[in-house]
Amino acid sequence: MLFSSLLLGALHAMVPLTMTATGEILSERAGVVNIGLEGILLLSAFGAVVGAEAGGPLAGLVVGLGVGAILGLIHGVIAVYFRGDQIISGVGINILALGLVAIGIVWQWGVAGFHQVDRALRIPHLVTPLGSMSPMVIVTVLLAALTYYLIHHTNLGLQIQAVGENPAAADAAGVRVERVRLFGAVYAGALAGLAGAYLSIDWLATITRNLPAGRGFIALATVVFSRLNPFLAVVGGLIFGFFDGLGLLASTSREITQVVPYQFIQMLPYVVTLLVVTGVIGRARFPAASGQPYRRE
Amino acid sequence: MDPRPGDDQAAESSGAADRRRVVRDAAGTAGQVLLAAALGLIIGAVLMEIAGYDWTRAYQGLWLGAFGDPWSVADTLASATPLILTGLAFGLCFRAGYFNIGGQGQMTVGALAAVVVGAYIPVPTPVAVFLVLLAAGAAGAVWSLTPAFLKATRGVHEVISTIMFNWIAFYLALYLAFYSLNDPQSAERTVRVLPGVRLAPLLAGADATAAIFIAAGIALALYWLLWHTPWGYEMRVAGLNPSALRYAGASPVWTINWTFMLAGMAAGIAGATQIIGRPPTYALYGDLSNLGDLGFDGIAVALIGRNHPIGIIASAVFFGALGSGARMMQIMAGVPLDMVRIVHGVIIIALAAPEVWSIIAKSLVRRRAARTEPVSAQAPNSPARR
Amino acid sequence: MPGSSVPRTGAPGQRPGPPAGPVQSDTWLEMRGITKVYPDGTRALDKVDLAAAKGEIHGLLGENGAGKSTLMKILSGILPMTSGRILIGGREIALRNTNDALAHGIGMVHQHYSLVPTFTALDNILLGRGAPLSGPARSAARARIKRLMDDTGLYVPLDVPIEQLPIGTRQRAEILKTLDRNVSLLILDEPTAVLTPQETEQLFQVLRTLSRGGTTIILITHKLPEVLALTHRVTVLRHGRVVGTRPTAGATAQDLARMMVGAERLPAVKERRPQAIVEPVLRVAELTVLGDGGTPAVRNVTFEVSRGEIFAIAGVTGNGQTELIEALTGLRPAASGYAYLLGQPITGVNPRKLYEMGLAHIPEDRHRLGMVAQLSIMENSILGVHFQPRFRRAMPGTLHWGRVRKYARDVVRRFNVITPSLRTPMRSLSGGNQQKLVVGRELSKSPALVVAGQPTRGLDVAAAATIRDLLMDMRNEGRAVLLVSADLDEVLALADRIAVMYEGEIRAVLERGQFDRERIGLLMGGVGDGPAAG
Amino acid sequence: MRKWSLLAGLLLVAFTVAFTAWPAAAQGQGSLAVVYDVGGRGDLSFNDMAAMGADRARRELGVMVTEVESATTADFLPNLRALARSRQHDVIVGIGFLIQDALTTVAQEFPNQKFALIDGFVDAPNVLSISFSDHEGSALVGALAAMTTLEAGGDTVGIVLGIEIPILLRFEIGYRAGVRWAVDRYNELHGTNKQVRVLHTYTGAFDDPARGKAATEAMLAQGAHVVYAVAGGTGLGVFEAVEQAARAQGRDVGPPFAIGVDSAQDWIAPGFIPVSMVKRVDNGVFAAIEQALAGTFEGGVLQLNLAAGGVAASSLDMLDVFMDEAVAAGKMRPEERVARLEGARAAREAVPPSAWEALNELDQLIRSGDYEVPEALDRETAEYWREVLSN
After folding, report:
1. Most buried of B232, C39, C203, D135, CB within 10 angstroms?
2. Chain D residue closest to B78 (CA)?
3. What is the pTM of this model?
């Protein structure tokens, strides 16, 4: 009971981290880094609720994905066509989303702070031996597999890797560098958008002013953790989710907290992630042209 | 721009020409920032119009709240103080080619150290203030050295380690603030620092303190370090071409450590300024709410300031102005704080792509050039970044 | 290459023979009035005309910065032109990107190879072709490329990441990649810069075969012997303008060189003064150095460099020269063996210490090591010596920019670096001027030993000659020079002794007077003598 | 670039000229200013309740309301000063104990300005310090939680809190006291010797529903029957976890149950929140402006305890009023209101009558002063009471 609850909790906590990280992995492979994932999660979580209220849970997912894709597109256009600074653009998206959602909640529902999502508008869950599980868990793993396949076994994937490693070479080979990079940026936005929708109309069933609460940054860390391999992003998301849950579980016990204060127990996911990276993952190699705009001159 | 003047002439004329170029570049950057600000304000106005707020009044409030009277100016400077330092923490690392998102955590441990030293070590005033700053800087430096060390020895990417260290610092501070350093009389905050280390307001009725001079002084010192010492020279080389750094005989490991250490110091001192430099509490709240997100805000400040210490001062003052202007925006027009965030966001995004401005400028130039001569050589360069 | 001083018969293609195949005189490709102005106002090309017939091998000759590469990048769709027209078979075509160019059968082999280093040769060849990564279609593509390799004789291992292949093989992959697109116009940008004479000859055979098959070839080069050996016609560019086009038959190297550099006097290598004292400055004994992959890149190498001597290491790039230089200049640890500079051990010593001991290092890749593109001339002029007391104020730690400026001005003047100002960023300079600054900075150290890696690679004739003269001056002043160069002509012209390196070993050391181009070429290709001690 | 800086400079000058005039004085009869805590509007906690009070003042008294949010606690002082300096507000209310230091300073600087402080104490004649007996209200819902658990044969309840700060200790210990009292009462009535374990977690966040959800799932997995959410937005995760656990067992109504806090949160997860511990910050804010307008404003302490109506267990009537307001404001559709009210009623009915009896009985005892709820505002005291109350 305890363990299955913990495992289920870890699976559900994995979804936003891994799904967001998976999209970002593809984007970074193509050379576009987006530090604005936190903002995309937030704004698409908001969009998903609006969408779900207009047309049901599926519409919610679609709108979430769409909002994410649009933000990815904005970031991509700045990064790829205007050759702007990707870090600045990402930071801007984060701040913009904080403001837009806070005001958006007031505009949309007339209340400050939060809006609860009606049960009928949420993603229906699957019944599993572990307990009720969101189908998005499976979608996440499938998306990771799909993304892996896309990167390593398709022609588009070849082009994505090429524009990330050596855009000039890709250009000379007839690859449309800008389009492929833009695709990467939009893909990352779309997956983060889907993850945002999962936050609001599935996992937490609510929209608040700061719903992701830092998960966009943890997803960024998961990208580094994964060494740009989507399957490792699943592992990273699970490790984080598991130890986060374990920390909260352990801190409910007075016997434990009297020995180790709960603040230290709740450091667990961060410490474990750091230890895993230090001990097992080690040096990650990133595409040579990652984060750098491509100019023809 | 004649590409090939004789070398003699070049060497002789370079002094004045170079100075002009520097001024022109700085003016160009400032112009871009102001244009982006204008764009942000316009979009903010449109949103406010849609939402039914009186945006002219709101902007009147923004201006008055930021610069309307001496108190407002002081408040602006007070808000800018920690941002200068957290901005430097990011900007310095960025110059050297590292991505330090750990300013928040470094600031947090700095604030803790400031409380410990400031509250428990009774020594005469100037020494005490110095000790507090030293302790806070040292704590921030220690906190940033671990990611630097992990990067240098184990290749752990600083993005992951600094994010993790932010959270570890957060929980550590929650623990210490409430379990060890708490004020028995008022458990919601730590003990207050001793009166001797509290920096008094520069102007009665406003909360800018001498901390602004500390922050500006550190910015100037780092400017001096970057451009007037061999170590700073090496940091800049590290950021632009790490291989050339080894060729030049400097140790990359050493440079990483130095850079992160100085960045951590700046962030740590930012934490200290929030403790000893902002009346009236002079203590750390148990939920760390007097630190807020200042460490993260530093990233935006640094990027807008183009990671240049002087630019960071200007950019922090700009952020401080938006922050203290937001106060009057709320009071005078009832516009919520979040509207200011939107304006922030738009400004930052607009600044991400200076090329947009040069494209606009270029098209203007082309149109003018079409009237006069075939090609103008005066197309503005986008300023060097990174 | 020291211009006219190398006789034509010493050119790589030693059997010039009749130019390959018949040439139809009717024009097939035509570029008219091509003008290119960069956003910063630089006018790279000014109303350039170029024409070539079907099956013609057309040489495009010019100094660095003459606009050769820019012109060809426009033709291959990489750069947009400011104005002008391009016609193929009399019909005007528009080239918005490389795909457009490839669709018209135009393909380019770049000087800086356009290969993704982490990809296999096969993936690189198929990149952008829309070929699937698995299944029968891939097998078919593989078979097609195998056939192409058989047809052209350009063999490449298809499943090894490019970064693990020697540079000559990489170039073959690059050419295969372009040929696989069924190009009817093949552009090659300085293709022989990194090849052995034998490899060069092989390549020329392939090009002649292609030409006979009707492929038009444009060869960008600044090597006159190649032009004379291979091409039907040659167009010379200078400062973005066409100086002239003429048939190769009947042209002499002197004519072409004069067209290339204008009225300026053709440079020749300075006189070699006899040196009396033999006194080793650098001693290397049984040195073994590991490469990036962890396998030995330099194997058990022993040699000495004496004062007043230019000791040259010849060899095809990628045979351990880079690792050897890095080990001698403090950038890479030695696995075993010793190296002494003026009697003091130097393996594993920090570069800064080495500079103090009297080392000057002209790195073979100036962009990666020798300079910081975004920093100014002034700042670059002290890279590596920035810690020396002469650039510091009395106050500890402070840089004295006034002195740096003076020093930089001095370097700029003495080494004839052409720059608008001392604060100009390094990247705004031409390659030759960048290299002159790097060389000037290093030689200004008054070194005991100069280690020069590929000091003239990619430079125009005049700049290259200046730098060769400077190295000769160093020698004549009694300093030791260790020259590593893949340019055989340069090595032959400068060296007192030549060591040939192949697969990490020194295969032979030849004294001046024993120099034999043919034999050195064979040694570079791994044929002939076994490991030799110097 | 020169022309751009010129243009920008001109813009700047235009801006200066256009906006360098002080605002005209505000009009209307009476003006109220509220400075929120850093949680700001929408924290599902005392800021929202304060806003509700301000809304009511605007509606019923016709006063102007100026609201100011604070990005960090460092903004408190300048926010209060800016309001005080304008001399336009009859009373300035500061929300939350963290604002106490700043309010102390400003109250001295502006002795003629009236201030009120929620959840804190400032010893000044021009400051009305309004305190709430959170522990008393928490004890009530604790009694309900324990009794509900015991009647269902359970032995565990939980409380999920935000960041560990003194005021939350007051909630936690009050809740534990209520549980203890109800267990003793149950054992007394049934002649048994049962125990109820109280699991508590400080999640370290007031705005992260995910952490609330994970913490609650951990408690439910350990058999918790009722979980009290004292964590602002993090509490939304508590409700979601409880609802999801019940629905996974095919139930549309608890158990398990959650208990809301600060406002009547029963409607948020209809069917699963039988009661909320309501803290009437709105009444405090309203009282401050009302007194200021009526001229009866005096400094000092206003203790809003259970007896004074400052804290209470939520009732359907309260919920009704709240929903009426929401519908009137267009924030809620009428049919939604009906459904939510039905859900809240169902949750109440799903709780055994004995639990309501216990809650009401304890309510009477506290009002009459026969039972004094222990109060903890520091860690040592809290630890002492945790020890005492669990034996």
Report:
1. D135
2. D74
3. 0.88
